[in-house]
Amino acid sequence: MSPMNRLLGTAAPSETSILAVDRIACTGHGICAHILSGAIDLDDWGYPILRDAAPDPGVAAEAIKLCPSRALRWQRR
Ligand code: SF4
């Protein structure tokens, strides 16, 4: 795992990783909820509500990659 991937939270998750949203960085585009439907819902303002912090890693990786604000990431529990 490269230090940059670890820093950005884009590295592949370990068994102790959970998906997290940086609420300061998030701009409420809602792309994550479309990709991870079932794991992420949107509130009335379009901001994500994480329902499942351990979704399918492959699908989550796609959501992390496409988040325009880099607000979605893996972090240690
Ligand atoms: S895609 Fe990123 S910026 Fe958009 S709602 Fe999800 S976490 Fe926030």
Outline the structure in words.
The protein has 3 helices and 4 strands. By secondary structure, it is of the alpha+beta class. The strands form 2 sheets. The protein has a two-stranded antiparallel ribbon. The chain has a two-stranded antiparallel ribbon with strand order 2-3. It is globular, with a radius of gyration of 11 Å. The two termini are 18 Å apart. Iron/sulfur cluster (SF4) binds next to helix 2.
What is the fold's blueprint, element by element?
Layout: H1 3-8, E1 17-21, H2 31-35, E2 40-42, E3 48-50, H3 57-66, E4 72-76
Antiparallel strand pairs: 1-4, 2-3
Bound molecules: iron/sulfur cluster.
Relative helix content: 25-40%
Strand order of the largest sheet: 1-4
Overall morphology: globular
Mean pLDDT score? 89
Into which percentage range does the β-strand content fall?
A: 15-25%
Major beta sheet summary: 2 strands, antiparallel
Cα-to-Cα separation, first versus last residue? 18 Å
Oligomer: single chain
The gist of it:
The chain has 77 residues and is of the alpha+beta class. It is built from three helices and four strands, in the order αβαββαβ.
